[in-house]
Every structure is written in structure tokens, then in C-alpha cells.
Design goal:
heterodimer; A: alpha+beta; Alpha-Beta Plaits; 3 domains; 10-stranded mixed sheet; 5-stranded mixed sheet; 20 helices; 17 strands; 35% helix; B: alpha+beta; OB fold (Dihydrolipoamide Acetyltransferase, E2P); 6-stranded antiparallel sheet; 3-stranded antiparallel sheet; 25% strand; globular; binds zinc ion
């Protein structure tokens, strides 16, 4: 089915005279043998020309088509050898030049077809011509090496100018009749995509440049190749008037003519209308696409652990008031700095199971936290290395301490947030009473069990949270008398209970509060979180 | 390790109000002698409207007969509702918007005003049930209302108000003419 048959001849003829490159011809003839695309495009062009000029029906099998068939019968190996039917002379010419792009073109340039060869393809705008070869592969490999990523495999992603879709559509309409004659089943979707052909050609070359690393279809490490073609950007513009709904401005996009929007508009536009507004076949461009900088992106790595906070003047996250920084550091920054450098990540997102106020300490086993590391250049650390990283964090500051540091999956991170409300938290508060107290004045508090509070959103957070009355339960309390105006209050509460407001009452907005219970004004001087009872992440024995 | 040092000062440690709020005053509201209001502004810009300790309601052992948040036929502050983080739906108040009327048992009536521009978040319904809170704890549980100024006005709304020092000095001058027979 992949072989080029007599019926393909008029299609090939029509495509070549329309200004298509040889690989685009293969695409429109639905040739799905990857190796056919890996031959130098000049060779393929010669073969195609020979094929269509040959009127003998039996001959094609010895040129382009037969090669494809052999290849197909043999294997679909992505990294397969060059087509075996290449004449020995040409192969000899090709191999020394294989490492560098330009000589590949030079090698084939002797065919006397210079004009046609140097013409930029009207459909792929040069992407499947000279932008697709060892030179480009070397450039990609160089970008990856420069950034010193650690990886086992990579996936190539290709971003093409949106107008390629318009040109593809125009070309499809140009040969649709002939294609339908070839086989009733042929549809626009059967045409091999530019992206696909590009990858078939490039994957093996990039792999070779990187010493054999797997270039696969799914990998956590993505290497992005992008092409633009300013000369033909206006190709898409007529679609805005035929399908205004498809091109609504969005905040994040520079242009409304995204690939998605153009594809949608092309699905909607009628054939006569398209042909009325756009040339068929597409017009000849004067220049090739411009390759943009290679973009490397490794998927996020997630790290979790528990932290203690020993300092009453350390916020959990950077504290900004009117854009100005208060406090020189934060829990998240102290933890993140060594982790970022170990994973050589570009940035991070920090989350934790609840948070404490700037003046509150977190003691005991600490508070579970997790961090998403963005674009890590290194993604795997051994258990020993993680332990060393934890020690490095702990050595870097006395204000915090980290334990159970480990790499986790994205899914596991949600375990930290789920059921957060049902979990209990334990606190110790230093309480001041306005009226003098005796030891026995406070002992009744120890007998209170499951005290339900009605808490209005505290005034101190009301500017950023909705106003509501929330019911929270204090499961139990313990008291430790200090002097006539002070005692320690231990509390075991439902997560989400505001302790400070329970103690001072927040203008009577938390009911009942400790002032009510003790029938005197009370205030909270110090607060420590003793435990956050979330059993994630798993503990790591010291 | 505790990097702020040991325990804070003893019995006369600053109260919750002192620690987190700035006190602002409007004296002789609408020209009525001593009808002073006190606005507590939190560092997060939220304002709590209270009676200043010098307000006539808090003098001479008065008792409250009624508190009415229905400030006109068409408008009751009790109907105020805010929803979401953006506090949609709250009544927007200007400086002289009345919040409630308080009647004492001696039939004197006083109107309490917003004093600042902003969105009304809540009024204190506890003082309806227990009016004595207003007398016993005027600057905490006996508050009148909570108002959220516009973000861009959070500094400018207090420009027309008196600072605590300014108010104290005003009050100290005030006592002289009052004690003199007129
Ligand atoms: Zn092409």
C-alpha cells in the first residue's frame, strides 16, 4: 500500500510542479515507511523525477517504490540503515558528509537540478528540506549538552508556524481529486504530517549526536524545536474574517492565530470559500523557516518532608507588605535553596499541610511539606544523596530543621492535602490572665472534652478570606500552672481551629473563648505547634 | 532555639488591640460635644468602629435601653451580607454614614457613624442581645461594626482622623471649660 504506483504519477507530477519538496510528495502519497524520509531529499527528488518520466509500468519497483517495499517487508526500525537500493557511488559520497549538514546537500548537488533543489517548499517552508538534517541535529544536541541535563531518554517536540496548516490545506485541495482516484479511502488525515516526518528524520540523528541516548515518543525530558516564518504569517489572516469565533484574543497568547485556532477555522471554512480567498497551490516563498532557540524542559520532580520551625520571627513564605520585604528569610526559602541547587531546578512551588504564623514555632515531628521543582536539570538523587541534602539544609540554618526528606510522585502529593480538615493538631500556648489565678482556678479546663467553637473568620485574615462562621472542635486541653498570671495550655484540636482567637476571643467573634471560660481577659503570649497528625510523607528512619 | 528571646513583659503587656491595631479618633462627631468615635485599624487595613472611652454613653453610669441598626425605613445594617473573598454585596459607607442609634434609659439618643469610607463587613449582633457589652468592653466585645476600606484608600482614610496623642491632648484641654460653670 505504501508503494508508489502508476496512479501516484499524476499526484507526484502535480505536487512537484506546484513547488512541493520531495518529502512533502511522499507525505501526500501517504508513504508511511520512515526510512523513505531519511534519504537525502535531493536523492528522493531525483528518484521521483525518474519515476514519473518512466512510462514503463513495471519499472517503478526498481526505483523509489521498490525500495520502500523492501524496507517495509524487512522492518520498521526507526534507526534503520539507509535504503539499500542507493547506488554504491552515491552512498560513498554520502557517508563522509553524514556528520555535517551542508555537505550532505553538496554531495547531492551535482544532479543538475540546482534550481528546483534550492527552491523552498511551498508546503513545509523548508522544514523537511535543509532544516531537517545533521546540522540541525547537532544544534539540538549542543543545546542539550550546554544545559548539562541528566536524562536517559528524550522526546522531541516540534512547534510549527500556524500557516503551515493553511498551506497544507491548500495543497490537499490541489491534489484531492487525484488522491481520491488513487484510493477511495484516502482522507486528509492519511497524509503524513510534517511534524511526524520531521521526527522520523531527526530522532535517529539527534540520538547519534548524543551518543545513542533514546529519542522516544514519551519521556520526562522534552527538547522543543520551534520554527517561525514571518514572511508568510499573513497567510492565516483571511481566516479571521471567515471564522471570527475561532480567533478570540486571550491574555497569554501573543497572536490570536494559534495552531489550534487555525485548524478549527480550516475545519469550518467551505472549500469554495477557501479557494476564493487563498491561492491553490500555495504561493512560492522566498525564504526558509527560521529555527528558534532550542527549549529544554524536564518534567517537575517532587520532594517532600517535614520541617520544624524554631524561630518566632520567621515567616513560612516571603512576607511582603506594599511590595516591600519584611523579615530577611522564610521557611520555604531556607529549605528550597539547597534543594534547588542539588536538583539544578529553575524554580519551585512550596506547599504544606497548613501553615503557622510568623511568631509560632513548629516542634515535634514537624509539619509535612512538599515542593514541586520546576525544570530540574538533575532528577534522580539516591537515598544517600537525599540524606546528605537533608543534612546540608539542617547545617545551613538553626532556625529550621528538616526530616523525612524524599522524592515523591505528583500523585502522592495530594495525600498531604486530602483529609487535612479531619486531622488533628496539637499546640502549646503560653497564656496570660488579667485577674490573678490560683492553681485550682484552671484545673477544670483539663476536664473539658470536645468543645465546639463557632469561629467567625478572624479579623486578622478577613481581608483575604471570606466571612463565615466555622465550627471547630477542641478535642481536649491540659493546663500547667506557672504563676498568678500565667499558665501553659496544651490543646488538641481539629485542623483549621484558630488558636489565638480562641484565647483572646477576637472581639467576641470566637465563641466560646478562653476569656469566657476563665471569666477574665486572657491573652496568648507564645504559641508552639507540637504535632501535625498527617501520616504523609512516610517517615524515614534515621 | 528561640530567636526573639524570652517571655514578653508581664501583667501590663500590650493587649491584643495594642499589638495589632492603630487607634484613630473622631472627636465631637457632627459637632456634638464629646460624641467621640474610635477606629481600630488592623495592619491588614480592616477597621473596627468603636465608641471612644470619652463618649457620653460611657459616662455617668448610663444604662442602654436599645440599640437599633435600622437607620432608616429602607436601610438596616443588619441586612448587610458579604460573600466571597472579595466581600461582594456589602453596603458601601462614607464618613458620615450612620451605623446605628443607641438609646439610653434616660431617653438620650446617640447616632454612631462609620467615620471612614469603606465596605461594611459586619455589625456586632452580640450587643443587641447583651447591650451591657458596649459599656463593659467598648473597645473589644462591644464594638459597633467592621469596615474594609478600599485597598488604595487604606492610608488616606485616616488622614482626617486624630491620632491617639492628638486625641489625648484634645481631651485633656476639654476638661477645663467643662468643669467651669458657664
Ligand atoms: Zn516540503
Amino acid at each position: 500500500m505504501l508503494s508508489l504506483k502508476d496512479k501516484d504519477k499524476p499526484i507526484i507530477q502535480k505536487l512537484l510542479s506546484a513547488g512541493c519538496c520531495s518529502r512533502c510528495v511522499l507525505r501526500f502519497c501517504c508513504v508511511s515507511v520512515q526510512a523513505a524520509y531519511r534519504r537525502p531529499h535531493q536523492h528522493t527528488l531525483q528518484a521521483l523525477k525518474a519515476f514519473i518520466s518512466d512510462t514503463d509500468n513495471s519499472k517503478p519497483k526498481e526505483t523509489v517504490a521498490s525500495g520502500c517495499e523492501q524496507e517495509n517487508n524487512k522492518s520498521h526500525d526507526v534507526a534503520g540503515p539507509e535504503l539499500p537500493e542507493d547506488p554504491p557511488v552515491k552512498r560513498a559520497k554520502l557517508e563522509p558528509g553524514a556528520a555535517v549538514g551542508p555537505s550532505e546537500e553538496e554531495a547531492a548537488a551535482g544532479g543538475g537540478m540546482k534550481d528546483e533543489e534550492s527552491r523552498v517548499c511551498v508546503v513545509c517552508l523548508g522544514i523537511l528540506q535543509d532544516l531537517c538534517g545533521t546540522a540541525q541535529a547537532a544544534k539540538i544536541a549542543e543545546a542539550v549538552k550546554t544545559e548539562k541535563y541528566e536524562f536517559d531518554t528524550l522526546v522531541l517536540s516540534v512547534s510549527l508556524p500556524a500557516q503551515l496548516c493553511v498551506r497544507e490545506h491548500s495543497c490537499w485541495l490541489h491534489v484531492k481529486g487525484e488522491l481520491r482516484q488513487k484510493s477511495i479511502a484516502v482522507d486528509k488525515d492519511d497524509v503524513i504530517q510534517v511534524k511526524e516526518a520531521f521526527k522520523w528524520i531527526m530522532q535517529g540523528l539527534v540520538s547519534k549526536e548524543l551518543g545513542g541516548v533514546g529519542v522516544v515518543t514519551r519521556s520526562p525530558f522534552e527538547v522543543g524545536v520551534e520554527f517561525t516564518h514571518p514572511e508568510t504569517d499573513a497567510d492565516c489572516h483571511f481566516l479571521a474574517s471567515t471564522c471570527p469565533d475561532c480567533f478570540k484574543p486571550t491574555k497569554n497568547k501573543q497572536s490570536v492565530f494559534t495552531r489550534m485556532a487555525v485548524v478549527k477555522a480550516l475545519e469550518k471554512i467551505s472549500e469554495p470559500k477557501f479557494l476564493q480567498r487563498y491561492p491553490c497551490p500555495p504561493a512560492q516563498p522566498t525564504s526558509s523557516c527560521i529555527p528558534q532557540d532550542i527549549q529544554c524542559l524536564h518534567v517537575s520532580v517532587f520532594v517532600a518532608g517535614r520541617y520544624n520551625k524554631f524561630c518566632r520571627s520567621l515567616p513560612q513564605t516571603p512576607w511582603l507588605i506594599d511590595g516591600e520585604r519584611r523579615m530577611e528569610s522564610s521557611v520555604e526559602e531556607l529549605i528550597a535553596a539547597p534543594i534547588l541547587s542539588a536538583f539544578r531546578a529553575d524554580g519551585f512551588n512550596f506547599s504544606s499541610s497548613g501553615r503557622e504564623d510568623v511568631d509560632v514555632r513548629t516542634l515535634g515531628n514537624g509539619r509535612p511539606f512538599a515542593m514541586e521543582l520546576l525544570n530540574p536539570h538533575r532528577s534522580r538523587l539516591s537515598k544517600v544523596e537525599m540524606k546528605q541534602l537533608q543534612e546540608a539544609i539542617n547545617a545551613s540554618s538553626e532556625k529550621i530543621r528538616v526530616r523525612d526528606l524524599q522524592i515523591v510522585t505528583r500523585d502522592a502529593m495530594s495525600r498531604m492535602k486530602e483529609g487535612e480538615e479531619e486531622k488533628t493538631k496539637s499546640y502549646t500556648a503560653l497564656i496570660w490572665t488579667q485577674k490573678p489565678i490560683q492553681r485550682e482556678d484552671i484545673t477544670f479546663i483539663d476536664d473539658i472534652k470536645d468543645l465546639t467553637l463557632d469561629q467567625k473568620t478572624p479579623l486578622r485574615v478577613l481581608h483575604r478570606r471570606a466571612l463565615a462562621v466555622r465550627q471547630r472542635v477542641i478535642h481536649s486541653m491540659t493546663t500547667r500552672y506557672l504563676d498568678s498570671h500565667h499558665f501553659h495550655l496544651g490543646l488538641k484540636t481539629q485542623a483549621g481551629t484558630y488558636i489565638k482567637e480562641f484565647v483572646h476571643g477576637d472581639f467576641g467573634r470566637t465563641k466560646p473563648n478562653l476569656c469566657d471560660l476563665l471569666k477574665t481577659d486572657t491573652d496568648i503570649l507564645e504559641l508552639d505547634v507540637e504535632s501535625v497528625d498527617v501520616d504523609w510523607p512516610p517517615s524515614i528512619p534515621e | 532555639m528561640d530567636c526573639t528571646g524570652e517571655k514578653e513583659a508581664e501583667a501590663n503587656a500590650p493587649s491584643v488591640v495594642d499589638r495589632y491595631y492603630t487607634r484613630w479618633y473622631r472627636a465631637d462627631m457632627k459637632g456634638k460635644p464629646c460624641e467621640d468615635h474610635c477606629i481600630l485599624q488592623h495592619s491588614n487595613r480592616i477597621c473596627v468602629v468603636t465608641l471612644a472611652h470619652t463618649h457620653p454613653i460611657l459616662q455617668d453610669g448610663r444604662t442602654i435601653k436599645s440599640i437599633n441598626y435600622q437607620i432608616s425605613n429602607g436601610c438596616s445594617r443588619l441586612k448587610n451580607k458579604v460573600s466571597g473573598k472579595s466581600k461582594r454585596g456589602g453596603q458601601f459607607l462614607t464618613d458620615y454614614a450612620p451605623l446605628c442609634r443607641i438609646t439610653c434609659t434616660d431617653e438620650t439618643e446617640y447616632t454612631i457613624y462609620s467615620c471612614i469610607r469603606g465596605r461594611l463587613l459586619e455589625v456586632n449582633e452580640s450587643i443587641l442581645e447583651t447591650p451591657s457589652l458596649l459599656l463593659e468592653k467598648p473597645s473589644t466585645e462591644g464594638y459597633i461594626a467592621v469596615i474594609l476600606p478600599k485597598f488604595e484608600e487604606s492610608k488616606s482614610i485616616t488622614e482626617n482622623l486624630l491620632s491617639r496623642d492628638q486625641f489625648d491632648s484634645l481631651v485633656s484641654k476639654r476638661t477645663l471649660p467643662q468643669t467651669q460653670p458657664s
